[in-house]
Amino acid sequence: MGCRTFLSLLASHTPEQIFQASSDTLVKLGLKNTSIQAIKNPDWTLIDSDLRWLAETDSYALTITDPAYPAQLKEIADPPPILFVRGDPSLLSMPQIAIVGSRNPSTSGLETAFNFAKSLSTSGFVITSGLALGIDAASHRGALQGGGYTIAVAGTGLDRVYPAKHKDLATAIVKTGAMISEFPPGTSAKANHFPRRNRIISGMCLGLLVVEAAKQSGSLITARMALEQNREVFAIPGSIHNPLARGCNALIREGAKLVETTQHIFEELNVYIQEDEDFTEKNPETTLDLEQQTLLNLVMFSPTSIDDLVTQTGYPIEVIASTLLILELQGYLEATPGGCYTRIR
Length: 345
Fold this sequence. Notes:
Layout: H1 3-12, H2 15-20, H3 23-28, H4 33-40, H5 44-54, E1 59-63, H6 71-74, E2 82-87, E3 96-100, H7 107-122, E4 126-129, H8 135-145, E5 150-153, H9 167-176, E6 178-181, H10 193-204, E7 207-210, H11 218-228, E8 232-235, H12 246-253, E9 257-258, H13 262-268, H14 290-298, E10 304-305, H15 306-313, H16 317-329, E11 333-336, E12 340-343
Parallel strand pairs: 3-4, 3-7, 4-5, 5-6, 7-8, 8-9
Antiparallel strand pairs: 1-2, 2-6, 10-12, 11-12
């Protein structure tokens, strides 16, 4: 049974009335035969499994009529009738900023997501994301590092973690924040679950920040859901030569707020927060020799080829390659596809 049908029934009937209704009545209400059979002959094994999960510490099920159900989420066109929660359900009603982006981001993208999440969380916002690889995980970790709160919206039941490599991260999130899902325990990961999950990520937030996204990224779908839900959408701009920036640049062309610091987000949300420092961490002092500094100054914040650097400096290619490696190890730049380098600080 879909969310809209579920909510339509709740608008005119109590759950008790639905379970007591005859099959003919349920047909007249527009229910399909499979739904009617499930109501008339519940799978008690699954119900018992859900009840055992609910008996565990910090496990909850919030119906849409529960006072703890997030008011922001009720506003969307198809809010989930039930939210399963592990952790602190009170966080769901706190002001949230969602952060999403590529599952295969650049090093710079990971740092940006981490630092934005850390700064926003220390400013009082809960950071919401989807526990996916890449930008999602960096955002959760940034919030945790900042001593703030984070919510992970899962595309599976909460008795499992997807991807499995994020099991430790999920455990850390539950300790101080929350994991939520509209899917009951026992539900495995399926491709169609994740677009459904994304409407919850955008639906609970005041604004959604896209850090890195390719032109066909799923993050753009989440951003458009946020726009449909009348949420603010923010995007980090990037080089026109960077494939991971094309999605963000497209969002900005379509009206998303261009963001370079957290203060830009606060301004758009009409929140005043005095920051002592910019959201980015101060880079430690490092000493570069003349040759290294000269080469660094020639590497752009977009892909720069070794051939271009040889032409501009006249240095032998061996010297260029070894100096680039040193600069990469010191965190000034990163290698990009095609044998190029991009400056990241």
